[in-house]
Amino acid sequence: MKTDIEIAQATEMKPITEVAGQLGIDAEELELYGKYKAKISDAYIKRISGNADGKLILVTAINPTPAGEGKTTVTVGLGEAFGKLNKKAVIALREPSLGPCFGIKGGASGGGYAQVVPMEDLNLHFTGDFHAITAANNLLAAILDNHIQQGNELRIDTRQIVWKRCMDMNDRVLRNIVVGMGSKTDGFVREDHFVITVATEIMAVLCLAEDMKDLKERLSRMVVAYDYQGRTVTAGQLGAVGAMAALLKDAMKPNLIQTLEHTPALVHGGPFANIAHGCNSVRATRTALKMADYVVTEAGFGADLGAEKFFNIKCRMAGLKPDAVVLVATIRALKYNGGVEKKDLNEENMEALAAGIVNLEKHIENLQLFGVPIVVTLNAFVSDTKKETAFVKEFCESRGCEFAIAKVWEKGGEGGIELAEKVLSALEKESRFQVLYEDSLSVTQKIEAVAKKIYGAGSVSYTSAAIKQIEKLESLGYGALPVCMAKNQYSLSDDPNKLGRPTGFDLSVREVYVSAGAGFIVVLTGTIVTMPGLSKSPAAYGIDVNEDGVITGLF
């Protein structure tokens, strides 16, 4: 059996100019990054701004498990299936982070015969967007420390610096460091921290910004520290905005690539869903809606994280109204939620399936809160039995959901036709999209709305530090912002070991801070960290390149 990278490398790609031509994009409206990648120009985005919007379809999933769910694979395969049905469709995805690529999770280009290509480029440096974000973030950090070194005109309290440096790699030893050691000219000694690039506020800002003007306004509002009077100090006050915007100029433009079946794909931005808002850029999504009749996008991890933030943050801010949502599950993952060990998942086990399907049930109920028509799809495995599949089908249809089997990993677009037809049927229903909570609620009321309605918590507890942070943020005028919950992805609760559908648990909030430029309040729960570490045997050990420049081991 071929690996994903072997399948991708064996596929003949079309020049990206031909793929763009399918959408009516002229060659001069592209900025080429080689033969198979391009950025879409601002001129093209402006030219199509008057077009009617297509239908917006979100793909989300149950909580991820070691058994695999295949959300991105289904997203890509659904887009390819629309092509098989002669529908004009575009896929809108996030860019992968290098951290998971070399760590445990893997890349984000799909799998099998439902992939976007060139997959090696996408999963590594791509068009340099993440490098630009990293550079802009660390430029601001350097300007901040230099301001203090050069006299500290803004009277920044060095004990209340909240801006962190970043890199796009899993490196746990950088979570907490000391900087400024050495001589007087080496800066002030202080504790500092790193986050992974995809957890930075600049990533969120880039993904939510409408245009360059909006980008600069958001960058200017970012809080970097507090002064001795407890007032905010922003990137705008430090005079860093222009230089950061210059670094981000090209990163603001959506990237165009293709699937294995040459379906156009806009891949742009990539905030983590467990510690950030987990959606591709507003700019890419809006552009895709003007380009095609159907836009298939995804949100990271399970629906409790990615979909919740897609609806409550991205759609709220951008005025987007999704027309349908696809909820991905696998029988293997449901049995895992029912207590089956990974090694035994290929065996039929109706008791475990019945026990684990409560995880799917909760995600269905959560999505119904937002008023969007739902299609549940089982990403098919050869070990699935007819009895297991029939049980899940009846379970979903009895709860008012369309249901389909997806065989896109094996068959590409052909394996997604059943799903595409069910999505088209769902699109005939009225979407009555609504957000979960109103802006006017207090910060704690918003946190508890997500914790109790989405996660199933019975209560929320706050550390004394978190209580003080919330009080301070509300006193500074940030109380009307939505909340971005940072939570582990493996469980509906803040304990990754609680599988299935835990209820009545206490959600622990340990830290709260504002991302004023992005426009939301970040809430850290449980033991979630914003700089991951590598495992004992990371994926990096298996990656290589031969003398001909062919990469191997990248999934």
Q: Would you kindly provide a written description of the structure presented here, covering whatever features stand out?
A:
The protein has 555 residues and is α/β, with parallel strands linked by helices. It is built from 19 helices and 25 strands. The strands form six sheets. Strands 1, 2, 3, 4, 5, 6, 14, 15, 16, 17, 18 and 19 form a twelve-stranded mixed beta sheet that branches. A four-stranded mixed beta sheet has the order 20-22-23-21. Strands 7-12-13 form a three-stranded antiparallel beta sheet, with helices on one face. A hairpin with a 2-residue loop joins strand 5 and strand 6. Helix 7 packs antiparallel against helix 10 (241-248) and helix 13 crosses helix 14 (350-368). It is globular and about 70 Å long.
